[in-house]
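Field reference: sequence -> structure
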Amino acid sequence: MIQVLFHAHFVGQQWPITHPGNQQLLHQLRICFSEVPRSERPEVDWERHRIDRSMRHYDAVMAWVGLFLFNHGLATFSGKHVNQALLFPMEEVFEDYVADGFRRHQRDYHVRTQGPQKAFARIGKADAFHMKPDIALVRSGKVRFVLDAKWKRINGDSTDPKHGISQSDVYQLYSYGRKFGCAKVALLYPRTPEFKSPLRYEFNDKVGDQQGLELFCFPFDVVRPDESIREIMRRLASR
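Structure field:
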């Protein structure tokens, strides 16, 4: 049983819940738990449970049960308590949250994540240095806008024209914009008291009749994503 649980944990880091491998593991778990009766009074059962020396391998599992089922906090305690730590890669959480917001709150563009993929260079006949935009807004089969969500604090009120924006992030968005033929690209940062209004940059690379490329830096309100997305789409779609 424990082996199945650990296997499910590590497999789940790479496969979604709908993956056949995870579905098979869930089926095995249902069989293992089929004879366990449903708890009618979980709090009472929790108070009664005891772990003896023959079941020490359940210590860590039961600590997580208390955390998730009974809202035990992650704060510090006095006495004989083992404090759990639950960490998330916030840059990935923020990126996924932003992408999901664009899928929910606008219908004019198809949302692609980590794609479409294009090679930035070639060596012989082999492609090299593939480009995969974090978020691409696609319409009629063409990438119209490339967005990149960054879990970073920038200062829109600063007198520094960079406002704390990483130059490497700008290089990346510029290369995406030119490669996919976009007119506008955007960096999205969490909205903070120091960053409430969009910033707009023009790249100094216009040659002849070549279309100029604009870079926007938008504050994204994680509490009101619909409002942020409406404002972002309004500015991106405007001429």
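Note: The longest strand covers residues 142-149.
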